[in-house]
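Model it.
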Amino acid sequence: MTEHDLATLIRDHVADGPPYAHGSAEVLAGGRRKVRRTRVAVASTGIAVLAVGAALGLPPLLGDQAGPERFIDPAIAASIEAYDVTTMPRTMDDHARSILVGAVPDLGPADFVAFDDQMQELPEHYWEMASGLVTRYGVDSPHRITVTVNHSRGSAEGDPERYCAEGLEAGYDLECAVERTETGEVVITKLMAMRPMRGASGLQAWTDDFMAVTADDLDTVRPDRLWFSQQVKVVKSETFVTYVSEVVQAPDLATARERLVVPADDLATIGLDPALVMPSPPPGENGCPQWTMPTMEVGCTG
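Modeled.
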């Protein structure tokens, strides 16, 4: 299963969305200015996976860098204060689309999913309990774009430079770079290769399921089974992350680079959008830190 990777920016807020004072041009410029342009240099050798980091033995992301909840940006605080989950499908689509259409004019309709701590798709009457929200484009097509906002402590912790270095060394990342914003967000950009695997069932069936393809294994996978993903992950607090991913089917890396048409800076701008946030989910009735829909017996995931 993907890290669910999953990941929406910039335009004036829709009338029924949370208040947001900045216009799109101002926010876009500000978002790009905020990122320190010197990337932490990590050698771009190897190839990556969009699958769950724990399954690959990779270290968790972020850790002592995160500290207590780091929603420093007043715009983020305002969005949290005015949060209304029923407006999020439109807000996420409007903000993501206004950036993505520059590179993908035929973006098509958006598909929205709210999910719980076990990646189960939630009916609307449970949206308030969600651990994450997803807006997707190109579902079931060879060119997919996904925007995810998600509370997951395990995904937000760990050292990002170590995360990149070990992913590259293991061959799961073709490229991996870390940037830090002036207000404390961590931006991780990765290029990965993968192949489809048997999908989940039931309420988890909405996810895209892929398995790692390392650099050494690229030549062993049939070209029609190869996929590539460029993903930007933004860590905004000790538990909150956003993902913005562009995924393409391609027979080789060179072709994938041609088909990955959304600039990485645009993906990062979407991920840094202060309007694309959500409050922490309530604790689970089973004692777990996050709520899970009462449809299955599950353990806590952290």
